[in-house]
Write a structure and sequence with these properties.
The structure is a single chain. The chain has 467 residues and is an alpha/beta fold. Helices cover 31% and strands 23% of the residues. α4 runs parallel beside α5, α5 crosses α8 and α8 packs parallel to α9. The longest helix is centred in the middle third of the chain and has 18 residues.
């Protein structure tokens, strides 16, 4: 049985166009668009008609950086694949790419299988995986080729966290050389972890234990230095590079310089760096622990440079790095020692709305909003045009967005499985009203109508930014 839905009367916004159009959905895919009110559009019949008059019709968001159920420092992220993908849907995101983790001494395949087992049958929206490479050796390098063939086409390495995920420059170079050959994309956590560990030790010895010192020891210069080093290693390897969660203006400058030289270097930032700052890390009574993530929040003057980078395309993507830990019982592990606070913040539900606020505030255009939140991540991670746009043949991942609705962000009303909101009390203009995933209603006029198991694993092609 074929199923048809028509969305009428909305303003369809993609990365390239804004058009008042009706959208015909057939069997889970976009079948056609036609200008609203024309005879072509009026002729469409469907079992389900959605009135989007006065609303935006936008592609479902693609969040290319989440960590559901991620183990960290003796605990694990509070969102499961079930709760995390449901919250993502509430926020207008219809695809996530999460990180499977290789254990040191283990195979990539073991890590990938473990993450498949966590996610399968539990997701409300579609999902893919990147692979965290913690142990570069000959076996790992061979496995990278196999993973690319089966649709896991990006590999994350860490210049931070010695003793956990850290790779030295030689290991990074080897992985980059492999990616240059197999079409994979290396994603880099660019912070000089060896130097940071020295500064952590010195700070604690001075009795500087509060959360705010997390931001002080993880210096912007050490993010910039690592970004520069990653770019040069990628250049030596002849490989593309994607730098995750860029937070410092000095790191943006390194990316901009490399891109001006024509290098295939790309950068992502996250809403927390656009809207929060070291002022939050300094909140009294250990409240600052809620804002401990790495790279850390920076002083407010970095925000303007990040928005500028998004406008000039020196930064291409906004992802969340969603890795929530509850304040009670998890963040509290670091009372008296900031280095023991689990690193990570909730945000998968807030990204689309916060970026729309960026439109309202004049930082970016509507089309750029869709580009950095939907189209660019889909292209970057080999999901376009199946995901990230509204065009014939694309999956019918569609959001009806009310640009005039007002909301106040709060842990009382969010759907993430965490006991605080990083944006508590923030007033936003714009809100998700209805969400379709492959033509199925997941959020219907602000009610959850989806279910665990609707979301399917989505293999990815190699990055479409890199020819």
């Amino acid at each position: 049985m074929s199923s048809r839905t028509v969305i009428r009367g909305g303003l369809v916004i993609t990365a390239s166009d804004e058009i008042h159009a009706d959208v015909l959905i057939e069997d889970g895919r976009i079948a056609a668009l036609a200008a609203s009110g024309t005879s072509a559009a009026e002729a469409w019949t469907a079992e389900r008609v959605i009135d989007a008059t006065g609303k935006y019709v936008i592609p479902g968001g693609v969040d290319g950086h989440t960590h559901m159920e991620m183990p960290f420092g003796g605990t694990k992220a509070a969102d499961t694949f079930e709760t995390g993908t449901r919250a993502a849907a509430w926020g207008g995101t219809t695809t996530i790419v999460d990180f499977a983790i290789q254990s040191v001494g283990g195979a990539l395949r073991e890590g990938l299988d473990a993450w498949h087992a966590k996610a399968e049958g539990n997701c409300a929206i579609d999902y893919g995986f990147h692979m965290i490479v913690s142990d570069v050796n000959e076996d790992t390098l061979k496995e990278m080729d196999l993973l690319v063939e089966e649709g896991v086409t990006s590999f994350k390495q860490f210049m931070a966290y010695p003793g956990v995920f850290y790779s030295d420059d030689g290991q990074i170079l080897r992985a980059m050389q492999r990616a240059a050959d197999n079409g994979g994309l290396i994603m880099m956590h660019a912070e000089n972890g060896i130097a940071i560990d020295v500064l952590v030790e010195q700070a604690l010895a001075r009795g500087e234990t509060d959360p705010r010192y997390h931001g002080e020891v993880r210096k912007a210069l050490l993010e910039a230095e690592a970004t520069h080093r990653a770019i040069k290693l990628a250049q030596v390897a002849g490989a593309p590079l994607y730098v995750v969660h860029v937070s410092a203006m000095e790191a943006v400058a390194e990316l901009a310089r490399a891109r001006d030289e024509g290098l295939p270097v790309f950068g992502e930032t996250c809403p927390q760096y656009l809207f929060l700052s070291t002022d939050n890390l300094a909140e009294p009574d250990f409240e600052g622990a809620k804002y401990v993530c790495s790279t850390p929040l920076r002083p407010k003057d970095h925000q303007a440079k990040l928005w500028q980078g998004l406008r000039t395309n020196d930064l291409q993507v906004v992802s969340t790095d969603h890795c929530p830990f509850c304040f009670v019982g998890q963040k509290e592990l670091g009372r008296g020692d900031f280095s023991k606070i689990p690193n990570g913040m909730p945000g998968v539900e807030n990204r689309m709305d916060l970026l729309h606020q960026g439109v309202v505030d004049g930082h970016i255009s509507r089309r750029r909003w869709i580009e950095i939140a939907c189209a660019s991540p889909a292209r970057m991670f080999g999901l376009y045009p199946k995901k990230g746009t509204i065009a014939p043949g694309a999956d019918a991942d569609v959001v009806i967005y009310d640009p005039h609705a007002e909301q106040t962000v709060s842990a009382e009303t969010h759907h993430m499985n965490v006991d605080y909101s990083a944006y508590e009390g923030k007033r936003l203009t714009g809100r998700v009203e209805t969400v379709l995933s492959r033509g199925e209603l997941v959020i219907t006029e602000r009610e959850y109508t989806g279910h665990a198991g609707h979301g399917v694993y989505t293999p990815r092609s190699t990055s479409q930014y890199l020819n």
